[in-house]
């Protein structure tokens, strides 16, 4: 009985509440009608602000996955409902002034505070008279704006860093500059704010890390931080050069971008390493702020950060200037390269001992030698120096600095010219496909189809890529033998990485490579079998004449498995160990020649050894390469002549 | 199929390098010494119980640990602004290694930034002054970042010619 009464009372209260709900203000009705009449929900700018994308089977879906980014219940898939809910939301009563609480969930802001870019755009389109809207206080938004003080925008590309899997392809983010001409105020760039979109990693488990990253189980979040964090992280700690692209955005677009980044900051997205990643996010934000730009359209199936930069250049006039912020490694090489032979001798001595005497050097010469030595310590011992413990490297650096400070010469700014040939946007397309014809001593005539999803190998055109690094994702080769009318998958590696380092006393880094996937065995152990393979190798490399000549020697270990393989004691798998040596010659940007010889000992398998000799020559013409490949293995010798196209 | 291949790809690439990154991180985390936990800076930013220079490897590159430390709407650190003495403190904390080197050389980007942050007139004079006082600012490699900060501020204050107006 009491329960029934309570129910009735509840219902009565609810209906009273509904009746007391004020009718929409006339001004809101007016705006809604105008928005409908003008089909604003179909406008490109609106689609971009909410990040709607066409679905495969019709309709649209917006990208944000966190709650609170949509004001309409079905806003994720209904642009019109979301637009009307947004307009309605702007009329929500302003909460009584309360101190800003950082703990408040972002979604609990007043819609005018949470969606400043939507407000700005709709105001412009509908000529909204802001004085007729409630005027909530937005202290957190105001603080954000005051902190970044954006007057111009720069897109930053951090170059490839092979020693971290997630950044092997580079990273892109935005810098909000406090000055209208960022290049004119280099010293303050450190205090500008960087804004990026990145996965928030919540696991230390390597398997989970890989799987979650690829299947969108990490949250992608927008973050901001003083630019100096990025400079210290990339340029010093990881020795990655930064490429900075100043963008020609109007002041209104810059303002809208800041407002929109704030909107994005209140939600999260499912993050996919290869598709919906940092580059996709950054370009999407730029497009939303400046609907005149076409950026995402220029991205391929897999989004590599370098493609982001190329997409900028597809919009003529968008990039105002390109700057280069050298990594500590690049700085050291530049300083060492500018030394006289006497100064270089002093540098060698100082690297041996910070107290080494440098007789006969004038103060400016001694300063130059010490400056190079300091960069060397920072470069070679970056990780150690970042560690809080006191280490021998920190001690060496301390002694070098103490000595340097007593030489009363102020160092000149190090000017490193922008190497045109290294600019990422000039690099070849990462997808490569080619065909070739040739002959094999065993199978007769051959035709080969060659494909690679990404990114670069040691014989590709060098422009825009690190001189001594190869990272290939999904290189595939299919082989047709007309005599047997047989089509084989010859090779399909999942990944193939080769990181060469010019070994010197100044740069004592080793050369390594790793790869795995499927490859064909061409020895008596299993002639012509496709086998699962994994390879790991380490050794040393040396470059001469710049990077025109590079020689390397490695010790490799390989594991191969195939059903018919006569491997370890007759099992279907075998181990291979042995040395490899290679040589690469480059003639400028136009031609490259790569040769490698490898011998392998096969313990407890038949046969007991195998070998592999290969020679590849390529001639690069704009977007195509002509190539010749000769390979010799125990069961056959083959030669191919082919052409490849970079897309 | 594509997803499986892709998954294998990243896993393979991860395993060798990730382990190393984790061990470096572990070495940095929780240790004290040259990187201290000064007021509003690194130590107090929301890296949970992680302290020290790991902050520089922030949660901003895919693949490093973090929990939205630098989120936009949720606010950044305790140091909301970037001006005045607090900003100098945060700046020195993160840029310690680069600053030490620049001070020993009497010039460089971090000195230019300090000049601007503290409202001094001329970065050349600031550089020369700091260089002369290197041994007072960095008497040893193990000096705490707090002490470095105090010494930098004192040096700039004491040299009236620099007219660093933000230092009062």
From TrEMBL, chain A:
Which top-rank group of organisms is this from?
Bacteria
Give start and end of each DUF7840 domain: 422-630
Q: What InterPro entries does the entry give?
A: DUF7840, DUF7843, Lnb_N
Q: Where is the Lnb N-terminal periplasmic domain?
A: 142-314
Q: Where does the DUF7843 domain lie?
A: 39-123
A Pfam family of the record is: Lnb_N
Specify the signal sequence span: 1-19
Arranged from A to Z, the UniProt key words for this protein are: Signal
- Name-wise, this protein is DUF4105 domain-containing protein
Which organism is the protein's source?
A: Anaeromyxobacter diazotrophicus
UniProtKB/TrEMBL annotation, chain B:
Concerning InterPro entries, the annotation shows:
DUF3015
Q: Which domain of life is it from?
A: Bacteria
Q: Which Pfam families match?
A: DUF3015
Q: Which UniProt keywords apply?
A: Signal
What residue range is the signal peptide?
Answer: 1-19
Q: Would you tell me the protein name for this molecule?
A: DUF3015 domain-containing protein
Q: Which organism is it from?
A: Anaeromyxobacter diazotrophicus
């Amino acid at each position: 009985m009491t329960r029934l009464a309570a129910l009735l009372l509840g219902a009565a209260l609810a209906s009273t509440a509904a009746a007391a709900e004020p009718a929409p203000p006339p001004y809101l009705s007016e705006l809604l009608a105008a928005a409908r009449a003008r089909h604003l929900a179909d406008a490109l700018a609106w689609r971009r602000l909410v990040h709607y994308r066409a679905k495969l089977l019709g309709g649209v879906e917006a990208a944000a996955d966190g709650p609170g980014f949509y004001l309409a219940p079905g806003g994720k898939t209904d642009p019109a409902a979301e637009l009307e809910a947004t307009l309605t939301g702007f009329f929500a009563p302003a909460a009584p002034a309360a101190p800003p609480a950082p703990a408040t969930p972002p979604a609990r802001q007043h819609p005018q505070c949470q969606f400043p870019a939507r407000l700005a755009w709709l105001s412009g389109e509908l000529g909204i008279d802001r004085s007729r809207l409630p005027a909530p206080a937005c202290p957190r938004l105001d603080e954000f704006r005051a902190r970044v003080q954006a007057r111009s925008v720069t897109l930053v590309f951090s170059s490839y860093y092979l020693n971290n899997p997630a950044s092997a392809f580079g990273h892109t983010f935005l810098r909000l500059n406090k000055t209208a001409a960022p290049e004119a105020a280099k010293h303050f760039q450190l205090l500008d704010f960087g804004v990026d979109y990145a996965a928030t990693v919540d696991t230390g488990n390597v398997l989970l890390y890989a799987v979650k990253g690829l299947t969108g189980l990490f949250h992608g979040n927008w973050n901001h931080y003083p630019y100096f964090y990025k400079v210290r992280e990339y340029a010093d700690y990881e020795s990655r050069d930064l490429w900075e692209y100043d963008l020609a955005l109007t002041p209104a677009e810059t303002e809208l971008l800041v407002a929109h980044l704030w909107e994005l900051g209140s939600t999260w997205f499912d993050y996919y390493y290869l598709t919906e990643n940092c580059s996709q996010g950054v370009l999407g934000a730029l497009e939303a702020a400046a609907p005149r730009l076409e950026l995402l359209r220029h991205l391929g199936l897999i989004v590599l950060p370098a493609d982001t930069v190329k997409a900028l250049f597809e919009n003529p006039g968008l990039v105002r200037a390109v700057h280069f912020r050298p990594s500590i490694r690049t700085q050291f090489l530049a300083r060492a390269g500018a030394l006289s032979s006497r100064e270089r001798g002093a540098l060698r001595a100082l690297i041996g001992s910070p107290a080494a005497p440098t007789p006969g050097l004038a103060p400016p010469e001694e300063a130059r030698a010490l400056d190079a030595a300091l960069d060397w310590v920072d470069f070679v011992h970056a990780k150690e120096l970042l560690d809080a413990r006191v280490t021998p490297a920190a001690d060496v650096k301390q002694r070098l600095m103490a000595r340097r400070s007593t030489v009363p010469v102020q160092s000149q700014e190090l000017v490193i010219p922008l190497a045109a040939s290294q600019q990422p946007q000039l690099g070849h397309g990462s997808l490569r496909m080619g065909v070739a014809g040739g002959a094999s001593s065993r199978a007769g005539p051959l035709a080969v189809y060659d494909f690679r999803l990404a990114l670069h190998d040691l014989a590709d055109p060098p422009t825009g890529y690190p001189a001594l690094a190869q990272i290939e994702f999904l290189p595939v080769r299919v082989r047709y033998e007309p005599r047997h009318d047989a089509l084989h998958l010859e090779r399909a590696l999942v990944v193939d990485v080769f990181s060469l380092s010019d070994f010197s006393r100044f740069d004592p880094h080793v050369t390594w490579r790793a790869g795995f996937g499927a490859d064909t065995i061409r020895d008596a152990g299993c002639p012509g079998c496709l086998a699962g393979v994994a390879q790991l190798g380490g050794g040393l490399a040396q470059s001469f004449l710049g990077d025109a000549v590079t020689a390397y020697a490695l010790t490799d270990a390989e594991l191969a498995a195939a059903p018919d393989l006569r491997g370890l004691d007759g099992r279907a798998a075998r181990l291979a160990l042995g040395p490899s040596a290679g040589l690469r010659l480059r003639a400028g940007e136009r031609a490259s020649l790569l040769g490698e010889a490898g011998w392998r000992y096969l313990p407890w398998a038949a046969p007991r050894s195998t070998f592999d000799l290969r020679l590849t020559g390529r001639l690069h013409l704009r977007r195509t390469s002509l190539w010749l490949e000769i390979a010799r293995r125990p069961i056959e010798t083959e030669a191919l002549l082919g052409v490849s196209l970079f897309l | 199929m594509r997803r499986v291949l892709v998954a294998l790809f990243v896993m393979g690439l991860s395993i060798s390098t990730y382990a190393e990154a984790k061990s470096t991180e572990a070495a940095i985390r929780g240790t004290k010494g040259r990187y201290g936990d000064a007021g509003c800076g690194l130590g107090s930013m929301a890296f949970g119980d992680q302290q020290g220079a790991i902050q520089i490897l922030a949660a901003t590159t895919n693949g490093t640990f973090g929990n939205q430390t630098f989120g936009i709407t949720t606010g950044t650190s305790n140091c909301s602004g970037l001006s005045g003495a607090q900003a100098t403190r945060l700046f020195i904390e993160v840029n310690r290694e680069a600053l030490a080197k620049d001070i020993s050389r009497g010039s460089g980007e971090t000195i230019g930034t300090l000049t601007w942050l503290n409202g001094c007139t001329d970065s050349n004079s600031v550089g020369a002054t700091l260089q002369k006082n290197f041994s007072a600012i960095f008497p040893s490699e193990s000096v705490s970042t707090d002490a470095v900060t105090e010494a930098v501020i004192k040096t700039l204050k004491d040299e009236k010619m620099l007219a660093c107006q933000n230092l009062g």
